[in-house]
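#struct-help
A.M.: can someone run this one for me? Single chain, 209 residues.
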Amino acid sequence: MRRPLHRRELLENCLALGTLTLVSPLSMGGLSEAWAASEQRRTTPFGELGPFYKRGAPASNVLRAEGDPGMPLALSGVVFGTGGEVLVEAKVEVWQTDHAGHYDIDGFRYRAVLAADANGKYAVDSVVPGHYPGRVAQHVHYLVTAPGYKPLTTQLYFATDPVFDGDPARNFHRDPLIASAELVRPVMIESDPKTVHARVQFDLVLEKA
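D.P.: on it. C-alpha cells below:
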C-alpha cells in the first residue's frame, strides 16, 4: 500500500506537474503552513447540559413519529476534530422538547443516540422544538463524544426563532445561556408535495483530550 503523501510533498508534486502555480512571493514552507492553518477549526462553543438530560436514550436517528404535530426538522452535520479531521467513531446524543415545549421525563420521546458514519456525518429526523418556561430560545441539546477527544456539551439554536427579531448576531444575548452567536444556525425551509419542513446544518468540533 502506498504511503499517503504529506502536505508539503503533495504541494511539491502539484508544482512539478503544473497543477499548482504560485503567483505571490509565498514560499513552499509558507504555503504549507497556510494550508495547515486553513484546516484548523474552532471548538464548538459550550452549552449547558441542562436539567432534563437522561441516560439510556435509544439508538436511533428518528425522533418524531408519524402524525406528530409541529414542523418536521432535518438536523445534520459532520463531527470534526480541531485539526479538520473527521471523527468517524463519534457518538452524538441529542434531546429536545416536543413542538409545544414539553420534555418527556418519563420516557425517551425526542431523545436519541446515534453514531457518526464513515465520513463523520450524522443526521436526525425530528420536529422544531417549542419554547418552554425558564428558557428564552428554542434549542436542541447535544452531548458528543469520540475516543481521544474531550466530550462536548452544547446546544443548537434557530435563526428563525422570533426572539432574535431576525438578527441573531445582535440579539442572541436575549437568552443568557447562549454562549456564542455561532450556536444560532440558519434554517432552510423546503417543501415537497406533501409537507413543508425545516433543515439545519450543525457541524460539531471537538478538542483533543
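A.M.: thanks! The longest strand covers residues 72-81.
D.P.: also worth noting: The chain has two domains: 7-39, 72-206.
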